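Lecture 7 notes. Example A: sequence first, then its structure tokens.
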Amino acid sequence: MSVNGVTSASDVYSTYAAQNQSTKTETKKDTGKGTAAESAGAVYESSSKKPASTTKSYKPDMKTVAKLQADADARTAQLKSLVEKMITKQGETYGKANDIWSFLSKGNFTVDAATKAQAQADIAEDGYWGVNQTSQRILDFATALTGGDPSKIEKMRSAFLKGYKQAEKTWGGNLPEISKQTYDAVLKGFDKMASDAGIETETE
């Protein structure tokens, strides 16, 4: 074998070895880049960072409460004005009535056409003092006062029941049929609120 042959073979090997080494280096670099990228994608986060609380906060909606209260006060004043007109027509005055609601419950009064028309409009199905609007206002008050907290539904129901019984006592007996219908509508409303919140209730 000639020296040239050995040298040539040596040169070929050297070239191959150099290329192979270069390829390995590039592969290593690429792999390193991949590892770095992968490492960057799998950043460890300390467990000391607690997730944000998912507990919902319930606060009374005082703005709505105030609005409902103001509206109710204005409408109550209107109702009292109608009652005063009824009594005045019979030669009595509103201020002399010891118990306005007992007076009304007896039904011993006459009403002029205009006052009667206004009263009938107010207690119509969709009137301000009708079943639909009155029951909805009561439920709106309950929702606003509790901030919509479902855990307070039964407390509000209990408060309503006590209020209704007190109204019967003030009236001097069983309330009119429209009041009974409103009573049923409110209880159904509380039942729906509880059902929507997944709360089982025992209706009376």
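Example B, a different protein, same format:
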Amino acid sequence: MAQYVSIAIDGPSGVGKSTIARLLADKLKYTYIDTGAMFRSLAVFYIDNGADAEDKETVTELTSKVRLGIEYIDGVQHMFVNGKDVTDRLRTETVSRTASVTSQYPEVRSMLLDMQRAIAKQQNVIMDGRDIGTVVLPDATLKVFLTASAKVRAERRFRQLSETGKLEGATFESILKDLEERDYRDSHRETAPLKAAEDAMVIDTSDMSIEEVENAIMKELP
């Protein structure tokens, strides 16, 4: 049975997990798994069906009706909900807020857990999220936990949304407040809370460039 390499990258929202994971996956020729995109895809489904993110019962019921799919088109991960490509809708603030709330629910996390683990058993992967090193891939080859101050992360998020035209009326102040609330929810939820695995490499990216973070991780690879 083949033994595949898995790299788990965890951390709060806006810390640069996806950017770093994509760069490393490209350099190492591994498959990049954006677990956040999975939760966001479900959020799109909840929104389209008029569900209140705080209504756990309705969200749980809808979760049993969704069929999630992943395809790689020109090397880019595309997410499909019941056969429809929703990739272009995943990075708005509305979807982010909905995913942040609904990802707390055990039923939502359970649905995606088996899918995430199955992918890692079939190929070399770099997977990023909130609980990859602690829950999804506890035996990952390398575990990394990225962090940064809330202010720095809010600045990055505001700049990213401005450049992509997806601010939806959000301000720096509202993004900062949303990040702080999301951090609290993620770290205090009952199921798979956000925290660094005991054997994770912790990197504060506040004053680091993307290249510096990438190089630091590459040095730890076996």
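Note on Example B: The beta strands are 6-10, 31-34, 68-73, 76-81, 84-85, 125-129, 142-147, 201-204. The mean pLDDT is 94.
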